[in-house]
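Dear support,

Our group has been running a series of protein-ligand predictions, and this particular one with nicotinamide-adenine-dinucleotide is the one our PI (initials K.S.) wants archived with full inputs and outputs. We had some confusion internally about which version of the output was final, so please treat the block below as the authoritative record. The input we submitted was:
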Amino acid sequence: MLEGKSAIVTGSSSGIGLGIARAFAAHGADVLLNGFGDAEQIEATRAGLEGEYGVRVRYSPADMSQPCQVREMAEFAASEFGKVDVIVNNAGIQHVAPTEEMPDDKWDAIVAINLSSAFHLIKAVLPGMKARRWGRIINIASAHGLVASPFKAPYVAAKHGLIGLSKAVALETAEFGITSNTICPGYVKTPLVEQQIADQARAHRISPADVVRDVLLVHQARKEFVRIDELAVLALFLASDNSASMTATALAMDGGWTQH
Ligand code: NAD
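Confirmed final output from the archive:
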């Protein structure tokens, strides 16, 4: 489905990003991995994807909070693969606290990583996409890009902003064969959420199972976590030629959460 294409997936050393990178590689795309983690484990993942799917897989340790590193990552991908056809702005962090207690540096980091990095990467790859008249921009926001929850002000603000950024870019680039869309997942059981389960269990003095049922999935009508492979298939569709007319959308995959 993506033979001959090349993609950057930010924050793909773990969780949703890794699932999307794997799906892209499995469908023939060269992929640039990015994100933090154990160097040996990341190299094993990179080499494993390359061996399994016979595509080029590279890794950039670029810190998405640093605009110059975002730009260098885009240049690295273009030099390794010859072009960048697809980007997935997925890297993200979370911090949960009442707004008046939210540390300033957490606000800055969440906005930089979850929102501004997408702007810098889009800006870096657009000239090439426009010149080739083909591009796919996929942004991983959240149900929190569509609705709010308390104690997550920077995350909610950044994810709402990411949807706005995606829509503006979509309108600007629609006549160049470029689409820009946002995926809004409900809760997915990844390291990002496992940390929240532990934190909330401590804060509320309830069991992790009660946190999942009564806090995390309380609005997720299906009462189950969204699966990474479901999100990967949606990203694959958005990256393909089949989605050429779908742009400027924010697609919820949230078990019904945002329709309450
Ligand atoms: P995760 O913690 O498993 O993965 C996050 C990835 O981002 C990791 O690869 C990490 O190394 C990387 N990362 C963090 N800071 C970075 C930085 N400064 N520079 C480069 N990479 C960085 O989390 P996840 O759940 O897979 O989250 C992926 C995306 O999905 C995030 O944007 C998150 O907000 C979003 N999301 C997650 C859920 C969920 O329930 N897990 C729900 C909705 C949206």
